[in-house]
Design brief:
Radius of gyration: 20 Å
Largest sheet: 3 strands, antiparallel
Number of helices: 13
Shape: globular
CATH topology: Glycosyltransferase
Number of domains: 1
CATH class: Mainly Alpha
Helix content: 40-55%
Strand order of the largest sheet: 5-6-7
Bound molecules: glycine
């Protein structure tokens, strides 16, 4: 009985709303209704073959081609809205924006084929069972696996840039989901082995003893030795860049979901237990936990959204107070993102759902703007939360 209560109580606590506070059910309905309208508006603002990326300083839509690493998030968001609303018009848009990406299944010159295909085709396959989607996911995973170097034990992130020989960024952990999903779909166990090798090597070389992560580790591809550790998008080489920490939290939780191995769960818990005490009162992180401008610096809604989604899932893998703590923090982040401060007003922001994300502050690119991945992981967090509490 005590064990049962320790599982049920956190969920009940999350369901109870304080007097005057919007229930999570009403909040979720409100956000998905807004998302359906906003994402349809976004489609109407796009030209042929364009993917939404962000908004410029004049308030104009910035689009990309399909090769930009974020091209899968908009179709992914459309699939998530279709999942919640059952709106056939949104499904048609999801199918259109997913099929635009089909050549990416053969992409071997970048690691983010995982993000691109798993969010779009992955959700499409999960919701429709379309066998063509399944084939594309498996082809994409095989393309990604060509970037694996067994001496290093990782898949290479970027082919470009600076003096790196074999750069691996913490973000790359997210691409492992495509490998694990395709391993299950195809029965090709080598894809799972690549993912597990990458996850274990990253745990060893990206993470600091306190549970925070470096952004980029450069390896010698001939020996596997670490050549250097640094940041690209964070405040400093030694700092905790917020989205990078969120990617790691999400990805080690996902690794546990696919493998059931405790080492991944322990890593996810370690990351969560480092991050949660460092969050501001409303739960949405500053763009880097160590920025010297805090508390006057920018928040990163995308890091908050990724964390919220990860924490909802992580709360299901632990019990008692830990579970309640993770779920409670996820709810706090979700409530803040669903407030007027972060949620776009109807018809505003060119059709993006969330404001106030930071893409690359050191590069002065996409600072305090809407970004497609903030929208995607916010919607996923809401779906995960509502699936959990309706059980
Ligand atoms: N490189 C992916 C990101 O900005 O999080």
């Amino acid at each position: 009985m005590r064990r049962l209560l320790s599982i049920v109580m956190p969920v009940c606590a999350a369901l109870l709303s304080c007097a005057g506070q919007e229930s999570m059910e009403t909040l979720t309905d409100r956000v998905f209704s807004r998302a359906a309208d906003q994402l349809a508006l976004l489609d109407s603002n796009l030209g042929e073959g364009e993917c939404p990326r962000s908004i410029d300083s004049d308030g104009n839509l910035v689009a990309s081609d399909i090769w930009w690493w974020c091209s899968g998030f908009y179709p992914g968001s459309l699939w998530l809205v279709y999942e919640y609303t059952g709106d056939e018009g949104i499904r048609t848009l999801a199918e259109k924006h997913t099929s635009m990406l089909d050549t990416l299944q053969y992409r071997t010159n970048d690691h983010d084929v995982g993000f691109q295909l798993n969010c779009s085709y992955g959700n499409g396959f999960r919701l429709t069972g379309n066998p063509e989607y399944r084939e594309i996911l498996c082809n994409g995973a095989r393309s990604l696996a060509t970037r694996f170097n067994p001496v290093v034990g990782c898949t290479r992130s970027w082919d470009h840039g600076r003096t790196w020989k074999f750069p691996v960024i913490i973000d790359n952990m997210m691409n492992l989901e495509l490998l694990l999903e395709a391993a299950e779909l195809s029965g090709d166990d080598s894809l799972r082995e690549v993912a597990e090798s990458h996850a274990m090597t990253t745990m060893k070389n990206h993470y600091r003893p306190d549970g925070s992560s470096f952004h980029l580790v450069d390896y010698d591809p001939g020996t596997g030795e670490v050549r250097g550790r640094q940041t690209v998008q964070g405040f400093a080489d030694w700092s905790a860049w917020s989205r990078g920490q969120a990617w790691g939290l999400y990805a080690y939780t996902m690794m546990y979901r696919y493998t059931g191995k405790d080492t991944y769960l322990e890593q996810a818990r370690k990351v969560a237990d480092y991050l949660l005490p460092r969050l501001p009162e409303d739960g949405v992180p500053y763009w880097d936990y160590d920025s010297d401008l805090i508390p006057e610096d920018y928040r990163d809604a995308s890091a908050g959204a990724v964390m919220a989604s990860a924490l909802v899932e992580l709360s299901t893998f632990v019990q008692g107070e830990k579970s309640a703590g993770y779920l409670g923090t996820a709810e706090k982040i979700i409530r803040t993102l669903a407030s007027d401060e972060y949620l776009s007003a109807p018809g505003e922001e060119c059709g993006f759902l969330l404001k106030h994300s930071v893409g690359n502050k050191p590069g002065n690119v996409e600072v305090d703007v809407p970004l497609t991945y903030a929208d995607y992981y916010f919607l996923e967090a809401l779906l995960r939360y509502s699936a959990l509490v309706s059980k």
